[in-house]
Amino acid sequence: MVRVAETTDRVRLAPADWGGLCSLALAILSLGGATLYKLYDISQTHRKKEHAMKIRDRVKELRRVRAGDLAPHPKNWRTHSRFQRDVLRGLLNEVGMAGALLARELPDGSLQLVDGHLRAETTPSMMVPVLVLDLDDAEAEKVLLTHDPLASLAGVDDTRLGALLGAAETESKAVGEMLAKLAREIKSDEALPTPADVEITPSYQVVVEVDGETQQREVYERMRAAGFRCRVLLFPYFAPLFLSGAKKEANVDLTVEVDCPVAESFRVQQAAGMFDLPLAERVSQRFEVELPDRDEEWSIGLIVGPSGSGKSTVARAAFGDSLDEAAAWDDGLAVIDGFGETPVRKVVELFTAVGFGSPPSWVKPYRVLSGGERFRCDLARALARSCEEPGAPADVIAFDEFTSVVDRNVARVCSAAIAKQVRSGVIPARFVAVTCHYDVAEWLEPDWVLDMATSQLTRRRLRRPRIELEVHRCRLEAWRLFARHHYLSGSLAKQARCYLATWNGEPVAFAATLPIIAQKGRRRFTRIVTLPDYQGIGIGMRFVEAVAELHVEEGFRINVTSSHPALIRHCQRSPSWRTVAVKKTGQSVANQRAAFAAYRNSAGRAVVSFEYVGSRQGSVVSSQEERDGEPGA
Question: 266-271 contacts: CB < 8 A, separation 24 or more?
Fold first, then answer.
């Protein structure tokens, strides 16, 4: 067997006998300006005795030569694309000439290249390091033939390659694209396509920008009718609407009397006799209450009381057509189509406002949604009336049976979500909740409460209970609870760093980050999910900012890229985030296939990218890691 002792500039053969011929493979590896040659002994099938082979040092000397004076080899078979030339220029600019060219000296004293043609072409006026070899014609051609193919036979160690990619950073776009291609060699849980799976076919697209949704619909339907495949793009920015104007404070006395006829029957007489009920031709009931004047300055009201106390009756008398009572949904339509002519941007904004923030559920019919999702859809459709007359004064929207059909946890979260959006002006109307549940009061934070059990009006604004999240490092398995709620993909790369947010011991949100390829010290959010029952009150972004702050404390910079309107709106308004990129049509398909074929990018989606730049004061998020000192399981 051949035993090889290595140094940085030569290979020495340990003493051994030279025996029978063996097939040889020549490997050449550039190391720090020198070239290392290794001869590998490939044994014959029935060899009885192993023989050592002498390895000659073919390097005569190291010279500094002007690259333009090196003669190219007449049989050089390698060609170089523009992309490869750009990568080399990027590396030379960032690193410099870190390896020697190979050449042999001809009888006339000139030097003929064996390897390094592209470097010589790229830097013709530069003095470059050249290893001069004492090869004859046949040997030079063998090196020329085998140098690059032999290197391409190397396998991949996922862990080491991932570590190198994570630590690498470059300012060169071409080098970054090359590293991104190299990242495809790393196996992951995302079932990424292999190069053989990626079929690059011509794609011809025209992106037309129009003035509004009406024109967008017209162009879409016309192109569909003409047989073209169409995709509708919408840049997800929503300008907030605000209430304005000072109003006086006053009460209005409201008296409501309702009656109904009493049917004469044997059973009625039986009931009257059993309980000594006085019978009359008609039964009536009178309600006398006080309510705030509509001209008064208030945003949220609450009418609460036990069943049969007259809540709906008083609300109907006070607010008339402004009282929303459940209406039927078309079972054949997606819920996002159940808002008539309301612009889709406003529909999405309303869904987000009531905590119905899961796009996969928007395209489902009402009948297949959960009870909590149906309630939020009913609420969003009621609030849509505030958008029917743009520019009109803010109206009052009263919602009967508020939170009556959902569990109390959903009721509390949804109450807080509505309060947040009404007070911020995102919903340009005042809101009155009518319910039998007293527990929503502290979460809705009403300006006034009418308790029908006592017929008393109270002006107050309760302070919402404090929401304290605990942030844990977690294992990849925690993603299973959240995967089906993510709007892009249920898969997650195994290299992801995962975090879990809990509230009162219950998991409520999940986030994961990955390194940004070719940018050392930078990471990006790859998954952010808040469970549907907890959406709408800002849990998601407070959690994201807590995770981002943990990264900053470790010395990382961290980005988030999204098409979700709520996330974009939050980051635009927050001083903790800086806008770094706006792509109204996402990354092009051509760029994806050329540079990031292994990853699902933003092609076909309008996205905005932000960088986290600092912590926010008064955060209600606490880190379990900081207390325990170890990541959670």
Answer: none
186 contacts 496 by C-beta, under 8 angstroms = no
367-410: pLDDT as tens digits: 999 888 888 899 899 888 766 655 454 578 899 888 887 888 88
pLDDT in tens, 96-137: 999 999 999 999 999 999 999 999 999 988 999 999 999 999
CA dihedral 123, 128, 129, 133 (to 10 degrees): 70
Superfamily of domain 155-232+467-633: Gcn5-related N-acetyltransferase (GNAT) (3.40.630.30)
Comparing 155-232+467-633 with 251-459, is the CATH topology the same? Answer: no
Q: Which two tokens stand for residue 470?
A: 């605990």
Other CB atoms within 10 Å distance of the CB of residue 525: 23
Closest CA relative to residue 473, chosen from 293, 308, 632, 590:
632
The pLDDT-based confidence of 237 (bands split at 50, 70, 90) is very low
pLDDT digits (tens, 9 = 90+) for 265-322: 888 888 878 887 777 777 778 888 888 877 788 889 999 998 888 888 888 888 887 7
Tokens (6 digits) for 553: 């404390």
464, containing H or E segment: none
At residue 240 the predicted structure's pLDDT band, cuts being 50, 70 and 90, is: very low
Place of tokens 């109307």: 429
What DSSP letter does each residue of 69-110 carry, written as one string?
GSBPPTT------HHHHHHHHHHHHHT---S-EEEEE-TTS-
Cα 241 to Cα 349: distance, rounded to the nearest angstrom: 12
Residue 338 in tokens: 């159940």
Q: Per the CATH hierarchy, to which homologous superfamily does domain 251-459 belong? A: P-loop containing nucleotide triphosphate hydrolases (3.40.50.300)
Q: What H or E segment, with its residue span, contains residue 398?
A: strand 395-399
Coil vs helix vs strand at 393: coil
Residue 285 backbone dihedrals phi, psi, to 5 degrees: -145, 140
For the chain, domain boundaries: 4-152, 155-232+467-633, 251-459
